[in-house]
Amino acid sequence: QSKGRERRQRKPKNCRREMEPLSGAAAAAAAAGGGGASRPPSFASQTNALLRKNLIFQKRNRKATIRLIIVPIYLCVLLSVLQRVINNLLDKPKYKCGCMCVDVNGTGPCQNVCGIQYSTLDQAGSCPIPNPPEWPALLQVPRPEYRAIQDSSESCRKSQSCPAAIPFTGANETLSTTVMQNMFTDLPLLNISDNASISGLLLGTDMPGTSTGFIEPAFISDLPIYVLQSECKSRDSVTLRTTIDAINVQKEIKCVQGLPLWRNSSRTINEETFKGYRKGKIGKGISEVAMAYDFQDSNEKRFNVLALYNSTYQNISYVPMPFGLLRVSRSLNAVSNAYLQFLQGQGSGIKMLLEFTKEMPKQATRLTIDFSSLIGPLFFEWVVALLFPVMLTYLVYEKQHKLRTMMKMHGLGNGPYWIIYYAYFLILSTVYLVLFVIFGALIGLNFFKTNDYGIQFVFFFSFINLQIVLSFLAATFFSKVNTAQAIAYLYIFGSGLMAGSLIRNFLEGGKFPRHWITVLEIIPAFSLYRGLYELSQYAIRASETGNPGIQWSDLNDHTNGMRDVMIIIIVEWLVLLPVAYYFDYAASVGNSSGLLSIIKRLLRKNPTWRRIAVNEVADNDVHVEMEKLDIIKERETVDQVLQQRNSGYAVVCDDLKKVYHGKDGNPDKYAVRGLSLALPYGECLGILGPNGAGKSSFISMMIGFSKPTSGNAFVQDFSIHTDMENIYNSMGVCPQNDMLWEMLTGREHLQFYGRLKSLSGSALDLAVEESLRSVNLLLGGAADKQVRKYSGGMKRRLSIAISLIGDAKVVYMDEPSTGLDPASRKSLWTAVKQAKQDRAIILTSNLQPMSIPSLALGHSCFPSMVAIKPLVLFGIFAAHSMEEAEVLCDRLCIMVDGRLQCIGRPKELIARYGGYYVLTMTTSSEFEREVEDLALKLLPNARKVYHLSGTQKYELSKQQVRIADVFMAVENLKRRVEVQAWGLADTTMEDVFVKVATGAQSSDE
């Protein structure tokens, strides 16, 4: 026990980390002895193999690829159809300039005359207006239910007679009050008859303004026009009938009391107007006002006034257009005229009146909406980002099914993998977006047609490069395709909506700092949206003015964010490219010292006490293992090998342990407990054990699927902790589960992995043919069928052939013959025997002891290979018969509950754990006692090992019983009772396994 503890505590002196590389002569000598490292495949051969495989895969998957590429074409067609539908709707008479047959000269037939005077509000936008109408200037008056009241009475609200409050303030209260009183006139409403008399009144409306003044909506609506006077009589109103620029107007004009209210400061006015903005609450001073003034330091010689106009009903929060200016000119004229009267006196008759307002003339236009440019930023962002989940799914699929790891274990490096997949994604994305832009321009979408194609290409090309890097980076954090897809689609839709909401509002609001917008654009979705937004705005402007869209010269405009966006995208791509490559490399090789593993360890809970618990359990198990001389000898061999520079051993396992930590309160699972093995070149080793014995966990550590909890292993002097890249160059694997591409054929699989092993030309073709023949995949054209059409046994045979293709020095095989029929297993035995001539083979099995119903031993198949150098094969083998293990294996070891129970040659194990005959006899149930008496008579200490429905088995020691005595006793029994069947067998390897496994399980209990 002390020796075992001491060996565990000291470090090996000549581990791979401390060894110097072998010299050329030493390496040649090792190769001659069968221990030389295989020549790693060149970068070109790896790239060529992966490229050919991907081209074949894409050829088979071309329908899905074509469907993906034509998605943008379909979307362009959809946008074009929607654009045409909208244009057709806007081309109807409802939106065309109104026309009427008019007798212009009054002497003859009428003439068709078109113009704004014959149009409705819907038609006015398309009419030519050489001489716009002159409209009286109006104030924005609050609606009756929202006007301010002076007391708690609500009677004026009910009768809709509340005054229009006009708060004011200034440094000189007397002057300010006088000016405000001069604003109102008491002209009787009945005297209103023409434009001149209208302009002398302070008119207002509670109807919102519009974006154009060609038609004043207050004069053509059903709502009344208000006149603000100092006092109003009950129901003081009049109907005005007049003509405004050839437009007959008949409007009701109502009197509204204008109520000036003195306030002590401009701040008080601001608070009142703020509280009443669109709220209309009942209460003194908490409602809307018509207008407000701050006369500041005005006096008889200086007129300095600050006017506040009412823009309550102008929706200017989203579309920044100066609607409020349509209602501000009258308020400025009114206060200026009142100040003039203050200076000259009321009786002077001097007035400064605003008679009318009018727009500038305009040409006839066709009412259109550039629908594609209007919805372009958000819609096209989703179209471009749609490639992200496609690429992420492709990468995570190979990760989930361990196809990436399978390729690495056969020699594929990260460089060729990145080059081929990056190039494929780049070509796919480029074709996708080029078709999108070209087809969109051909069918007339202004978003693509008007903007410079060079800017579009640079923008889209730089972003798809960034998107590819993001796909590689994101793939390192996902292990399931469904999870990756769900999160990817949530990201592209959620980030698109967020970018559309924030970026548009921040840019159009004009109040958000521009440098913070640039910070937001560091997020890829935001930078993509900003670039699309700029393209959209320039396209809309081009459709309205006829000018070209965005050009290279426009990038110098400080308001144009396209240049900043492209710089951000390119810099971000250059920064994230090495980061993504490192994370991908760390995840693929399981680098425990990498940043990715450090992050994962920080997220774990209490890693320290778990490691302590593992070591404590291992130390407690020392005395159990030390009791077995063959295990002790194997450990001593491992110690000796670790002290040598060139030992001639292919694989050395030094105290390997693997613990799966329990979750949700479950205890830890100890899969492998201190396994030590030394496997020389040219040896065939079989590993047997029941389910859960730790065989698959051991293989997972050796092939890089999982990291050991403690301990180490060396394959051709390379450590599995730090040198898996070098180990992969000389390794072949037949995993427990088939890792195959469903779209490729068996021949194409072997050609791909053969090229990874540096085979080419006729040597590759010959090796592939021999591999297919050895596993019976040439019959019936199975070699050229896609794997998705294979049965389970055919897939298994293909996996075996893959593990042996090329110059693999070390081959791991985990239960390779699972699912094979007896005929296939027998044919594979021949291939295994031929491979044993220059290979070392180790086989595993999931055998069950007799207490478990399913007792089976498996076997592995090794096809003979042409043009393969002498090598060592460390195969993990699932035997379905002990006959197979005994015939093929030089040594056998049995694992139970993660521990190595015994190891040695089959005959040695049979001699050590055998030494008895097995007597089996079947009778009817009433004669079972006689059979038991017979066995005890032959040997008093005979042990019953099986009893079921009249069939019994007894173990009889060879040293204490003779075969002749057994035959004589059975013949005597047959004279007295009916014996249905009986037999006497020597100890088999199956019996050894059952005895060792049952004994180990009993001792654990």
Automatic annotation (TrEMBL):
Stated name of the protein: ABC transporter domain-containing protein
MF GO annotations: ABC-type transporter activity; ATP binding; ATP hydrolysis activity; lipid transporter activity
The organism's place on the tree of life at top rank: Eukaryota
Database matches in Pfam families: ABC2_membrane_3, ABC_tran, ABCA12_C
GO cellular component annotations of the record: membrane
UniProt organism field: Aegilops tauschii subsp. strangulata
Membrane-topology annotation of the record: Multi-pass membrane protein
Chain spans, region Disordered: 1-24
TM ranges: 68-86, 374-397, 417-445, 457-478, 484-507, 565-583
